[in-house]
Prior knowledge:
The chain is mainly α. It has one domain. It contains 8 helices and 3 strands; from the N terminus they run αβββααααααα. The chain has helices at 12-23, 57-69, 72-75, 85-95, 106-112, 116-130, 146-154, 159-166; strands at 27-29, 40-43, 46-49. The chain has a 3-stranded mixed beta sheet. A hairpin with a 2-residue loop joins β2 (40-43) and β3. α1 (12-23) runs parallel beside α2 (57-69) and α2 (57-69) packs across α6. The model has no long low-confidence stretch (mean pLDDT 89).
Amino acid sequence: MARSRRIDITGAFARSAAFLSELGITISLDPTVKGFLRNVAIDGGALVVASYDDDVSSELLHEAGHLAVIPSVFRGEASGDLSNLAPLMDDWFAARPRALELNEDPIARGILQCGECEAVAWSYAAAHAIGIDTRIPFRRGFEGTGLALHDQVASGYYFGVHGLAAGGMTELPRFQARTPFPAMKRWLQV
């Protein structure tokens, strides 16, 4: 018997929004919003949504994942497709040329671990933590491969999970970790 691919999103937006609010991630409404994704944009370190509808929840958790994995010193500057952060991060490294040496700086590590893959893994962990279907953040985008990507992340061996672990946000599911993915040691990058 083939497993059903129907995704129940009932209450997903409200639960996601409450969770994000607890983390300090702000959400505002603008029905005319046009972001990198259809219904959600990042503006000044906050999320702007087209509606408070459950249908927006898949994009909401993914974009929140981007904000969450960005080191806090840059989070308030995050906007659009986040390309505005590259020069800020480059300047940060230029001012700290030894940041990645033996006793590396946690912000330097966070810069290296704040990409698309980490945001994808974070969105899965967030859906799991708030008790909604973990497929919700994967049902849109990803060029039609979202549910296959979901299955990779669910295995715990997706490279975004490794990035979250390298950034100190979770632990890999092997070696009897105390807080293995999808559990998180912290939800926001340092």
